[in-house]
Amino acid sequence: MTLTPPVVRFAPSPTGYIHIGNARTALYNALVAMKDGGSFILRFDDTDLERSRAEYADQIEADICWLGIEPALIVRQSERFAHYNQVAEDLKKRGLLYPCYETPEELDRKRALQRARGLPPVYDRAALKLTEAERAAYQGEGRKPHWRFLLTNFDGDPFATQSNSVGWDDMCRGAQTVDLAALSDPVLIRADGTYLYTLPSVVDDIDLGVTHVIRGEDHVTNTGVQIDIFRALGAEAPIFGHHNLLTLASGEGLSKRLGSLSVAALNGDGMEPQAVAAVAALIGTSQPLELSPTLEDLARSFSLSQVSRAPAKFDPEDVERLNAKLLHALPFEAVSERLEALGVTGDSRFWHAVRPNLTRLTEAKNWWDIVSGIVEPDVDDAGGDVRNAALEALPETPWDEETWPAWTKAIREATGQKGRALFMPLRRALTGLDHGPEIGPLLPLIGRTKAESRLRGQAA
């Protein structure tokens, strides 16, 4: 038996920048597609023309490409309104999409009365009872209808609802059911004629041949409604998977207003895509939080069944830790062009000298400036004896990896100092800092002339 390769989609609304929680959904879809030779569709749910922005869409596309995801197709819902209109007209003709004239305030009062009576706040389908004359009267008042989809939770009489449990085998949560009798008929078209998420999403999934819909667990109830719409349109619903959501350590959910956690911000802060992808994909699963060389490697071991049901807590330090681990293992050839773009012209000797201390690649530029630029040495009287002895024992050129141990041995013998008392005055004088990479590998790059000037307290 040959399995059909999965077709998945990531469907962000371009009303802001995507954060690491959104990236998680994109990655889950991409990993499922990669694992089984499928395809990934980037679909912009931009039916909200007022809030959607081209610059957000461009950044989202750049973000997922930075993470290593290559869409097979990019679709914009704003270019498909004519098709949605055709589908909506067909549903209206069949009586499955019906006009309602209640205002938001009237609906609020109706729900409040239902709660006061101990009833669930489910829409009572009062609009189905309106006569043509009553509808005309509302329209004469200037009211424009919103349109609801008639759920299949009745047998003949829509006012005598019956239990109708819609079930599916969720890729993350196992067997799931939603009783349509407990839900209000969903609004698919607003009074201003714009579409809510639901109908365009179902129509696109059908037209694009989407086989798997993988998204956050906040869409579970929506799934029952959408399956009903799939059936109304004569289509088989895709396989669904609803993963747990990311929260901050405080328990607060992620949102687009948290700009510091946007994918663009993480990129701009010097995080490597492999580190961001590993944390986004693996946190809240039974897999260890480890790096994979590529997304394809991660896909081979990934399974949605390993995703926990409990919310996953995001800790930015996890990204920092993996980012540093990744950099510490990168060969010079993998970063040489990026270093050059930063203005670092040092060779592999410089990279191997500073690599163990980096948490971000951009930090290499700071150390290149210390090696090749002007440094104001940090000198004080406490380390004067050590610096004086260092000048007395200053080795002749050429300098290599043996220079530092031989030089510090001579200084120790001359002063009797060792440990921090020996090395800290030298570090502060040579680099202007009290921390950083091992001095030994940096020393040949600093050179004898600069070293002598800095030990004398002169900027060099």
Question: Key terms for this structure?
Answer:
460 residues; alpha/beta; 3-stranded parallel beta sheet; 3-stranded antiparallel beta sheet; 44% helix
Q: State the major sheet.
A: 3 strands, parallel
Individual helix count: 19
- The best one-word shape is elongated
The helix fraction, in percent, is 40-55%
The overall pLDDT average reads: 94
Our estimate of the beta-strand percent is 5-15%
The assigned structural class equals alpha/beta
Q: What is the radius of gyration?
A: 31 Å
The residue ranges in which pLDDT falls below 50 over 5 or more consecutive positions are: none
Strand order of the largest sheet: 1-2-3
How many strand segments?
A: 12
Instruction: Give the distance, in angstroms, between the N- and C-terminal Cα atoms.
Output: 72 Å
